Amino acid sequence: MRVGIIIPCYNEEKRLNVNAFINFIQSTNKYHLCFVNDGSSDKTIDVLKNMQRQNPYKISVIDIQQNSGKAAAVRTGSKYLYNKGSIDYIGFIDADLSTDFNDFEELSNTLSNNENLNMVFGSRAKEASKNIEKDGIRSVISKIINMLVLFILKLPIQDTQCGAKVYKASLVPIIFKNKFFSRWLFDIEMFLRMKKHFGKKNIMKRILEQPLKRWIHVDDSKLGFKDSIQIPYRLLTIWLQYNILANYNISTATQSEEIVTQIYSLPTNAIA
Q: What is the pLDDT of residue 124?
């Protein structure tokens, strides 16, 4: 089993735990790290390139020239790993390691041990989750978001926005063929696309929400207060697009060129 882990990075120069990533990847042949620099304005790309040179066969770096959001970073990384051909499962975690490698490995093992599943994702909401730390404001915002998400998805998922997910590589053409409408709430769009593909009756047999043992909020979040108060509007936009406009073959997506990237990897592969 080969697992590709995508780590979206935006201005992570000073807080990226380089040693943690290097020590992890040197201790295993099961994983491949794919760092995606999302148009950082600091020296994040230099940090990532230095890491890649330390272990060029297990680390890839994709440099997106212009900041495009986490959705674009995960989509770009997923398509790259899918095209490598040697990756069985693909997932993503946050650059701050709010979800650690042990939890991610448990998600991966659950997926690989159940052929009926196509995706396993971490949950900070499940009762079995322990050692989960959240600040008060984020807790309130999360509850409001979860209520709106439940209305949109109409699926019994408690934590769609957890930044730790792993899925079969075969899902990439289904989930990531088209661009996402949201830069940050794309997880909801992932579930909506899978729901359409597998059907409402079968979708919950294909995915599993698994409790995390550890998740810690790290300060200096890229999602500010202004972004947070816009979430209800953005969720409404997603609901409108997938539940109303899609029935009439109408799209509000802006047609723009594919993002420009530079890949640092051995061997070098193109993104299809």
A: 84
